[in-house]
Design a protein that fits this description.
The chain has about 90 residues and is of the alpha+beta class. It has three helices and three strands, in the order βαβαβα. Helices cover about 30% and strands about 30% of the residues. The radius of gyration is 18 Å and the shape is elongated. The termini are far apart. The protein binds zinc ion (ZN).
Length: about 90
């Protein structure tokens, strides 16, 4: 048995290795949809594959950590990384 749950979040990034100048240079956002699948060969004591209440508690916390956040590319230059984390005075 397989069940699935969709989660959505809004995130921003720059795609440095993209073929278009707009994506390479501009911070822009997307609506991301993440679909998580849970499978089990048997049902739990509540006759469920998984209680969706538990997915909200555990999975949603992970998804929420990406919501309204900037995803930094691992190959980003140090100067840009530093500018992202500068504190305003
Ligand atoms: Zn993009």
């Amino acid at each position: 048995m397989i069940i699935r749950k969709k989660f959505k979040f809004e995130g921003a990034h720059i795609v440095r290795n993209c073929s278009t100048r707009r994506c390479k240079k501009s911070i822009h956002g997307h609506l991301y949809v993440v679909e998580v699948f849970f499978s089990s060969n048997k049902l739990n004591n509540g006759y469920m594959v998984l209680d969706f209440g538990l997915t909200k508690k555990h999975i949603k916390n992970i998804i929420d950590s990406f919501d309204h956040a900037y995803s930094l590319w691992s190959g980003e230059e140090d100067e840009f990384k530093k500018s992202c984390f500068l504190k305003s005075s």
